[in-house]
Amino acid sequence: MTPPPARRRRTGATGTAPAHNLPRRGTVRRAQAITTYGVGSLIAVDHESFVVSGLDHADETWRADEAPRVHEHRLARVLGVSYFRLPPASDDTSKDGLRVRRFPLMHSCPECNELQRHRDFNPPAGRSVCGVCEIELVPSRFVVACEAGHLDEFPYWQWVHRSAERGATSSGQCGGKLRMRSTGRTSSLRSILVSCTCGRAPEVSMEGSFRRNALKDLGLKCRGTRPWLGTSSAAKGCGLPLRTLQRGSSAVWQPVLKSALSIPPWSDGRADPLAEHWEALREYDEREHVEIYLKGVFKGACPVPLDEVMALLAAEREEDPDGETTPTFDHRYRALREKEYERLSAGNEESEHSHNEQFVCETPLGDQSVLGPIGVARPMLVKKLREVRALKAFTRLADPDSMTESTEMPLSDSSLRWLPAMQVRGEGVFLRLDEDRLNTWENATAVAARIERLRTAHQRVLEQRADDPARVVPSPATPRMVLLHTLAHVLINEWSLEAGYPAASLRERLYAADDMAGVLVYTATSDSAGSLGGLVAQGEPDRLEQSIRSAVHRAEWCSSDPLCVESEASGVGGTNLAACHACVMLPETSCEHNNVLLDRALLVGTPDDPDLGFFADIVAD
Q1: How far apart are CA 586 and CA 506, in angstroms?
Q2: How far is CA 23 from CA 19, 107, 257, 338, 347, in A?
Q3: What is the pLDDT of residues 89-101, one digit of tens each?
Q4: Sign of the four-CA dihedral 477, 480, 483, 486
Q5: Given Cys at both, which of 101, 120, 197, 484 links 176, Cβ 3.0 to 4.6 Å?
Q6: pTM check: above 0.90
């Protein structure tokens, strides 16, 4: 039987370059190579399965014309690289692409039911079919992973030959061949049966293989394999417990993404020619030393004037965390957000800059006094912004609702001078809450008690999910953080209805700390949604006041009320209070905190305590 020809797809794995005589397996969008199909992830293309290769040789495989450089100095400094690169283009004109490797290697044949490594089926070159039956092979549905980020084949042989009386069997071979079949009676694991032709073990189902201790009971531990690195993935004997996962499960791969807005003085691109020299330049404090270095590197023709270089170095040092002799990554990333808050608050007039300026933030022309009664102060219209999102690393088995520090797996065995990234452009509205009113509200006894209940529940979840108590980070739940988070969600829902934006095309960026109380709602997508000024128009004081009032009134009532608003806890582990998918939850691409730490009662109050809400005056109107 001859399999049908491969279909043309816009999803799947980017293949390898014909110039290297390697077959193209499929295509993905550039953004997917960062968020969904990044290094170390599993990707299904038609009937085959692959793992995206690491970046050890990406300097050669990522062609400069298809994977151009992207510069964002502030983010590059925090991540310890010189620049970023877009993933290779994936279309009919591309000559190269992302490298992938076949994984898992264990396959089964639906006709003869044999279960063995792909090469043992003797498939014809370039095809994935059984050499005997000529039926398309099925990649193993099951893989195993550990919390350190390693990935391996499911141990079918040990699973079949396990003994309830003697525990785990040895890992030696019995001389038989494994077989897998499905009874078809149900869609559960009980209907998937695995056997061995040696006859020493009975046919067993896959039921129970997903128990947390299922493989530990067999005496199996992680071998430290990293199939995305190929020959460089020598087993190092990790020794951590293994978990069984479905090949397509989201727990197999989660990206660690870090992002930054391009803000002055870096947002006009004039400093980009010096991207690979900042690490050396920041070692010099004296002007004459900087001048000598630049003359030596550029042979007297530096593309950036010396005065600008000194100003940029001074601006860079301003972002160093105060009081930190050796600032950690978290301290630097927090300082990055603080500088964004300062710039969003101060603005950046378009008339004062050239067309190359990528950050334009202006004060609205309307009368802002209409916002005073509702507790909102000094909105800003972000008419132009650029965001760079970089893939720093990835994790496995990380709970998306958890704030614990998961083990991050690097993208390469060797140190990298760059990281994969996407740059997106858009617009937005930045607004702040009145500090005096906010301080009075968050110090109220009822508000503090409600937040303490939420924070305690969230902290308990973090501690329960952490294998090492020392790695548990404090819950970020504070009155202003939860208030700003919920306000951003209801505004995104409001503007998706009033301004015609899909909710998934809007994003939030929260600035919640002792000295920050703002939120940026913006469009930043790789397509054209929201690039024509429609969102900026919502930031004019009259419209913004109407939007906030309408959003708050919508939040007064949920179709799940009174159950929703009177709930003592909701969400996974009680990490939300009055919040559900019928009222304030958003698509996960829009939310910075995975739809946890939400409570619309902090906006509108509760039937028993209407004054609990920050916008209680609007509700009473």
Answers
A1: 10
A2: 10, 20, 30, 47, 50
A3: 766 566 677 888 9
A4: negative
A5: 197
A6: no
